[in-house]
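Q&A log
Question type: sequence-to-structure
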Amino acid sequence: MKRKPVFAALAAAVVLAAGGGVAAASLGGDGGTSAASGTGTGATTHERAGLAGTGADDTAREDRDDARDDRDSDDRDSDDRDDDTRQGAGRDDAARHDDTDDDQDDDARERAHDAAEHRAEAAAARKLAAPDALAAALAHTPGRALSAEIDDDQDGRLVWEVEILDGSGKLRHVDVSPSSGKVLGARTERGDADDVRAAKDLLTGDATSAAKAARAAAAKGTVVSIDLEEERNGYWSVETGPAEAEWSVALDGAKVTQGSDD
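Response status: OK
Response body:
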């Protein structure tokens, strides 16, 4: 029974040596149990430091995760903006392409329409040549012819429109049918006084007449129009079809040259 104090002292010494703190021990009997409790400042401080470090690491990881999420979100927003920009650019390109196609289609249709019109005018002029149309108009209204051309009348028919300066100094407009050669109508026009005076001055004596100029230019193609021009002492501007070739015929000698002098 006297061994208990010795064991108690030994246990206390062990506890003090291991923990460096305060220990309390109790021993039971021979078959009893023992319990020890102690507070050590070293172990507790390490535990608190470990927990604090773990919390800081978690916070840092959360901050990095948040930053990564923000970057991912910015990247997605940037990709969306890029997609929107590309889609918008694609729509603009498509719209410009459609506009270009429309313009090209319009130009093609206009060229086709003009070509068909010129062929029709040339076909009408071949039915009744310009010199014959001028002769029919002058037989109806005597004077000096100043111009003649195949054109649509007010009813949409292709006719020879002949402009004549009559004996009284008035301008007369005479329509001649290419199919029959008959005069379809005539009317007086209000002409510019300077143009009338210039025509009188140019078409004097043996100046080349409209009919003579048309016959000279006919060697180049089907004459579809002839018009007196005042520049460079005057000349006849003649167009042959259906290619719309331009010719100049001199008032003196009826010489034909390529192109128009105006």
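Response note: The chain has five helices and ten strands.
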